[in-house]
Specification:
The chain has 158 residues and is an alpha+beta fold. It contains four helices and five strands; from the N terminus they run E-H-H-H-E-E-H-E-E. The chain has a single domain, classed as Molybdopterin cofactor biosynthesis C (MoaC) domain (Alpha-Beta Plaits), CATH 3.30.70.640. Strands 2-3-1-4-5 form a five-stranded antiparallel sheet, covered by helices on one side. Helix 2 runs antiparallel to helix 4. The longest helix has 19 residues. It starts with 23 loop residues before the first strand and ends with a strand.
Length: 158
C-alpha cells in the first residue's frame, strides 16, 4: 500500500519536497458534467443566456482556475503550466454539458489537481451564469480520466 506523501512522520501536513525529482512532461485530463433543464440547455446552445456566452466564459474561468490551483489547495505546488484546454460537449439526449480539461507542463510534479480544478470551476461557472433560469442544475462525475509522466507513470481510468 502506498504511503501518504503529504504528512511527515509526526502526522503533520506538509508540502512534498520535489527538489530532487526529474523534470518530465506531465499531462492530466479530467472531466465532469452538469445536468440542466431543457430551458438552460437551449439557452446555452443558442447563446441566449442573459449573462452572455456561457461556454466561452466557462472556458476562460476553467483556464484561469488551473493557474490558481495552488492558491486553493493548500499543499499544491505553484506550477508553470505550458498548456490548458477546456472543452465542452453538449449531450442533448441527457441534457448535460460535459466538460473536459487538459493540463500540461514539463516539471517535477503532476497536474492532476489543476485539471480537476479547471473542470470544477468551469462547471460552477455554467451554474452561475444559468442559475437565474433554473437552480436545480446538478454537477457530477468530476474525475481524473488520464495522466502521464512522473514516477507513477501512465494512468487511464478503466
Amino acid at each position: 500500500m502506498a504511503e501518504f506523501t503529504h504528512f511527515d512522520k509526526a502526522g503533520n501536513a506538509i508540502m512534498v519536497d520535489v527538489t530532487d525529482k526529474a523534470d518530465t512532461e506531465r499531462i492530466a485530463v479530467a472531466e465532469g458534467c452538469i445536468r440542466v433543464s431543457r430551458e438552460v440547455f437551449d439557452a446555452i446552445r443558442n447563446h441566449t443566456a442573459e449573462k452572455g456566452d456561457v461556454l466561452g466564459t466557462a472556458r476562460i474561468a476553467g483556464i484561469m482556475a488551473t493557474k490558481r490551483t495552488a492558491e486553493l489547495i493548500p499543499m499544491c505546488h505553484p506550477l508553470m503550466l505550458t498548456k490548458v484546454a477546456v472543452d465542452f460537449t453538449l449531450a442533448e439526449e441527457t441534457l448535460q454539458v460535459k466538460c473536459r480539461c487538459t493540463a500540461k507542463l514539463t516539471g517535477k510534479t503532476g497536474v492532476e489537481m489543476e485539471a480537476l480544478t479547471g473542470v470544477s470551476v468551469a462547471l460552477l461557472t455554467i451554474y452561475d451564469m444559468c442559475k437565474a433560469i433554473d437552480k436545480t442544475m446538478e454537477i457530477s462525475d468530476i474525475r481524473l480520466v488520464e495522466k502521464s509522466g512522473g514516477k507513477s507513470g501512465h494512468f487511464v481510468r478503466p
